[in-house]
Automatic annotation (TrEMBL):
<protein>
    <recommendedName>
        <fullName>Organic solvent tolerance-like N-terminal domain-containing protein</fullName>
    </recommendedName>
</protein>
<keyword id="KW-0732">Signal</keyword>
<feature type="compositionally biased region" description="Pro residues">
    <location>
        <begin position="181"/>
        <end position="191"/>
    </location>
</feature>
<feature type="region of interest" description="Disordered">
    <location>
        <begin position="172"/>
        <end position="191"/>
    </location>
</feature>
<feature type="signal peptide">
    <location>
        <begin position="1"/>
        <end position="22"/>
    </location>
</feature>
Amino acid sequence: MNLIRRILCLSSLPLLLATARAQTPPAAIIPTVITSTKMEMWSTDTETRSVFQQNVVVTGNNIKITCDNLDVTATRLDDPKNKGATVGTLEKFKTLVATGNVHIVQGDREVTCGRAEVFPAEDRVVLTEKPVVIDSSGPYVATGTRIVLLRGERRLFGDNIKLQGPPIRDLGFDKNKPVQAPAPLPRLPKT
């Protein structure tokens, strides 16, 4: 009888583990936090604009951006209570434009440039002013006049790109080995 109980307990273990996994709460949503020395914000009925200056740091969901200046446009919730508010309830970021000594770290990618335009709704980042993208998974280093990164696709494209990657093994010949004559060409049948 004791053996039967043990077998039943062990056989129900996968079901218990699956149930526990199903009840695990989703990862916490990390809010975007922006700090700077100076900031100015104003709103219209449809969007809120913020300009951050000096020592700007943005932290959020697996991303950190540092720069000299940041111009943020966010859409506002379409709510009658927001109409007269100086700063309305923000719905989502429309654009983030970072300028001056821009440094972005996200996962195994690191970016430096003079200007970065982030379009969250389009999952796109446009880098200009001497952009350098370092992807340590390769390792790869890309430079160009304009580089576009697409979120979730690990895709990069742009203008005047130079890509530096890992070395390709030497496909040449051994200088210390004597050169062998090439094999004779097969004779083609006469027609």
